[in-house]
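Researcher: Re-running this chain for the archive, since the previous output was lost when a drive failed. Same request as before.
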Amino acid sequence: MTDVVARYSIAVERSNPHESDALRLLAADPGHLIRVGRQLHSGFQSIGGKGDLTPSQFAVLLALSRVPGLDQTAVADVSALDRSTVGEIVRRLIKLGFISSVPDSSDARRQRLFASPDAVELVRGHGRRLRHADEIFLSPLNGTEQTWFLTQLRLIAFSHRPDASASGFEEVQEWSDGLAIAATNWAFGRLIRISQQAYGSLWKREIGSVVTPLAYSAVRVLVEDGPFDQRSLSVILSLDKASMAGLVSRMSSQRLLESALHPSDKRRKIIRVTPKGADSSRLIAPSFFRVTESILEPVEQHNQIPFLALFRRLTVERTAT
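Model: Regenerated structure tokens:
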């Protein structure tokens, strides 16, 4: 929508002048925004009750609840998951009694899968919480902004895999709660999961798995604006205390960063990047920017800055307040 683009096209220039270089750096990183967005959305899900299904389990059971009798390959397509991942989930859900498997009448090698009545009810309850989490997450934006933002995110998510809402599968009609597969493929929760998977695949292809996107974010901000005490770094990276401690431990063992007690406050740790960490940052930078360009490529170039500006409002600006 042109009004959204016009409103946010100069968002970077209007950013808070008192914001640290580290925060500005990550606010322009779509990988960081995707991670924080999924993290926040996951937290909002718990508001309506304790989580009872993982996102991937929900996607599989939703597919089988709405289109009973799919085989495993079709489940992977409809749920927007890798086939190997679906195989593991299906085996686990069969053991739990949530899925039954029946040989296809026309091909005994093919198994038709069905969700149990208990699984269908579980999907309905979980789906209501997911919709509520979407509403909370998107609440900082007005209706026009929400639609525009989800349209751009959908371009990213489904540029890397088929859109199950266009699969042609006939869904059961007796449900009245709006949990159609086509609708969930416009839901932020599903779009952010698929987008994070896409980002992870791009990262693995370009950079590998030795340095994770989160570890690289930590090194980048320490090189740009460090050192930081551990608590400040956790705020910049949008990590809780336990996750930050784990990250520092892992990166210290890789000799990417080092920590020391604060000279005037022994309760605080000061985190610094090591020479190895700084070298890694420089070496990875070209590949990192290729990943960034690739993940944003489905969004038209003139829409990329306003899209990131809206994403920033929903994530890093929200966690900073």
